[in-house]
Description:
The protein is an alpha/beta fold.
Amino acid sequence: xxxxxxxxxxxxxxxxxxxxxxxxxxxxxxxxxxxxxxxxxxxxxxxxxxxxxxxxxxxxxxxxxxxxxxxxxxxxxxxxxxxxxxxxxxxxxxxxxxxxxxxxxxxxxxxxxxxxxxxxxxxxxxxxxxxxxxxxxxxxxxxxxxxxxxxxxxxxxxxxxxxxxxxxxxxxxxxxxxxxxxxxxxxxxxxxxxxxxxxxxxxxxxxxxxxxxxxxxxxxxxxxxxxxxxxxxxxxxxxxxxxxxxxxxxxxxxxxxxxxxxxxxxxxxxxxxxxxxxxxxxxxxxxxxxxxxxxxxxxxxxxxxxxxxxxxxxxxxxxxxxxxxxxxxxxxxxxxxxxxxxxxxxxxxxxxxxxxxxxxxxxxxxxxxxxxxxxxxxxxxxxxxxxxxxxxxxxxxxxxxxxxxxxxxxxxxxxxxxxxxxxxxxxxxxxxxxxxxxxxxxxxxxxxxxxxxxxxxxxxxxxxxxxxxxxxxxxxxxxxxxxxxxxxxxxxxxxxxxxxxxxxxxxxxxxxxxxxxxxxxxxxxxxxxxxxxxxxxxxxxxxxxxxxxxxxxxxxxxxxxxxxxxxxxxxxxxxxxxxx
Length: 580
Ligand code: PEP
Ligand code: MG
């Protein structure tokens, strides 16, 4: 049994079979061959070994010619291993006796060899392990050829283990069969983490390297609450986690009873609980949990899922599904926040060295006005179907906000001329997720109908810490006093002007922060749909006066660790069953 600590990004527990994506992105499932197909599979293995040997010989000759024989010697060692009788008989035995597919036999056998060398620890042996992996990859490439399997053709439940998954790869995971996932890299605020929440499956990111220690079909446990991954668990651990999964299910059932009750504090203050969504189907998750509306619709996922840029009708169809389902409840359509870690089929500048600081989000929209207008037209057209609001992301200057509003006004004029109906009074708001917007908030509040604080980005830009980098995860902290002070500043400015303010970063989905946020004056929280019942339970259990006291004490503290443990202590006093 081996435990790996990573970053917990989506709660819940999953126990199941591993599906390992190697870092070239293909998967090696545990697969068996029929008895009468053994001969054919052995032949396939032989052909793959021959083809891999030809490639190695070719490389050997080329390198000898270019650089000299001494550099080509490495390939001789590869050839000897690949053609060695011992390896071949082991592989054949696995196929003939255990009926493993050649791919699975190769991946298991080579993994065992590599581990043997790694355990010897001397440096020369470690490089030998790398050689073995290199040969394994070559052989697998030849075995799989064009039949390389992605994640699209699953037929049974799996836990996906990968080096990395982009937000769009995560978005395309098969929701029927993928029951959880783990990646070696990735940070707490990454959009991959956000999508994990949308899929409502346990997920752990940033464990560091471990894929060499696990094969497809091995039993694995993902503990999405503690950020733990357990490889090869023993019977007792499996039983404990199965029991925990049961308890989570029964707590969820209890919370379902809150669905139709208001999120009102025990001293009578009404809180509006909205849902964050990335895909239209999630609107059903929001309705099932009794959301008061959609506080953040991350529309950029329409671009990430599609092969080509979505046209106006694609936008219209997606938005109308959401708006019609929500009836008269508000739906906040955030215009596309592409760029950084969400890159569709747009050309990326060669010198884009800091994508999170580069041509992202509203900046990209203002550089691609026709694309921006297409989206705005669709958003305006659906405004007659319900209660639609439009929100601009990542606004960092007043000029940017004014430019975005001008484009919107222009699109409205255009629709007007063509007699296409839309709601001319729809509310227009902005995300507050860049420190410059907080500093200038007194000016911004004069130019918008509402604000929404995006702490996922606000944390990264305030503390200069990449939200998707596991190596700086210690600095990426919602409880940092600088972040709390900025939230406080924004809420005060908004209240003074009577502008509604929402908080839609992941922070609002974590029950540790609910009392703090209410105490800072927030009355609208937009959360991952799965978190609505828990956050509602907290709201209904506390008083505003106690939250205000919590917020004042937290604001006076000097570091994130003290603040977080103080908040956990307070939560324990008020709602003991929710202490994470
Ligand atoms: C945020 O930054 O907090 C936010 C809600 O936007 P996103 O996570 O999509 O960047
Ligand atoms: Mg953001």
